[in-house]
Amino acid sequence: MYAIVEIAGQQFKVAKDQKVYVHRLQGEEGSKVTFDNVLLLEDGSNITIGAPAIDGAAVEAKVIKHLKGDKVIVFKKKRRKGYKVKNGHRQSLTEIVIESIQASGAKKATKKAAPKKEAAPKVAAAPKKAAPKKSEAKADDLKKVEGIGPKIASTLNEAGISTFAELAKTDAAKIAEIIADVRGNHVTDTWPAQAKLAAEGKWDELKKWQDELDGGKA
Fold first, then answer.
1. 48 has which bridge partners?
2. 20 to 30 A Cα–Cα from 90, which one of 110, 119, 143, 189?
3. So what's the pLDDT on residue 37?
4. Residues 6 or more apart from 71 whose CB is under 8 A from it?
5. How far apart are CA 14 and CA 3, in angstroms?
6. What share of the chain is helix, strand, coil (3-state, %, to 5)?
7. Can you give the pTM of this predicted structure?
């Protein structure tokens, strides 16, 4: 029996006791994880195809360890400009082992609703002058950082990073973890420093530095 299941944005053909390397998962080593987006099941001569997923089917696995993949070399060169840049990238991965495949009966994971707070009784009070509203922090255009495109900017915003100041305070390794599911090789080493210059309004200094970068890489 085997199944085709989506795990961390990728599709895998899996069977019981099989080891699989997937994009970094949040679970701790030794913990159990369940994937309910099963697209196809094969049990002997019976094949079930989802539309797009099979209702009630799930794949259960155990997290073995977190690791990094083999280094991928990215080499950039510009003709007749004497420009050469060599960078390496190692993808963050998680090794899991498939423990069981359920054809039916599995429940979809649902988020628990936060308990409602009881409304406090209203108490009449003396009228007060309305305090001026604080202006909400306006999101910055993170695409002005060399190496960040629309998809990465959207992913960072979903993770709560929407301004240059917030990006500048975020560690490069943490940024790489947040955008791990975005396709492509992304080197985030210079992004916090670029964001710091942008947050301080040092656009001329940033522009001069970016002219020397290629996709955000020094």
1. 41
2. 143
3. 92
4. 88, 89, 90
5. 5
6. 20, 30, 50
7. 0.46
